[in-house]
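Supplementary Methods S3. Complex input for the coenzyme A-bound model.
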Amino acid sequence: MSQTILRTERAQLVPLSDEHLEYQVELDADPEVMRYVGGARTREQVEKKHRETLAEADRVPGLGYWAGFVAGDFAGYWILRAPDPDGEESVEGQAELGFRLLRRYWRKGLASEGSRELMRHGLEDLGLRRIFARASAANTASRATMAALGLQCVREFQADPSYFPPGTDLRAVEYAITREQWGARR
Ligand SMILES: CC(C)(COP(=O)(O)OP(=O)(O)OC[C@H]1O[C@@H](n2cnc3c(N)ncnc32)[C@H](O)[C@@H]1OP(=O)(O)O)[C@@H](O)C(=O)NCCC(=O)NCCS
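Predicted complex, serialized as structure tokens:
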């Protein structure tokens, strides 16, 4: 099953494609947006990431990145991706949730609104058994969003330093929700 277009009350989530590259360049150029995720990116860095992201979506049916639009305007992107096959997570039945919005769309309930639909899609349509999300321990907005979605903090760990500029605070947290917990909340 390839990625599906998803809709919420305010947003349309469209599987990420080449036509969204310029939006990603704008989003990832903002140092405030990228504060806890490795810092602002140049166009070249975003182009490389974009190609990797699309290749990953081809590899794992149904999962990937979604560009989110509100009244036709790009607001950011939402992620429900397969875990890194080289990571310690068992890949089977799990996916990693993420979100990154343009600053003008923060604090309007949009990250959680889009994420709820992605979680429903993942756990109910795709049959996932667990969704997890990771963030810098200092990323208050991300932690508050994960908690608002019903994910629980399951561990603290040190992030891989190779993904971050020298001097980055590497303390990180993982939140998660199982299909059973999701069902109980519904
Ligand atoms: C994290 C991010 C996506 C949140 O987006 P958002 O649309 O503002 O989040 P929402 O409005 O859906 O808020 C969800 C919950 O988090 C809370 N929250 C959001 N930002 C917050 C902040 N800066 N401080 C405290 N709480 C915050 C909201 O009050 C809400 O809680 P509630 O439902 O209990 O009222 C946004 O801040 C962002 O794009 N940050 C930069 C990228 C990033 O760090 N992504 C996460 C990487 S792990």
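Residues 43-59 form the longest helix (17 residues). Strands lie at 6-7, 11-15, 64-70, 73-81, 94-101, 130-136, 152-158, 171-178.
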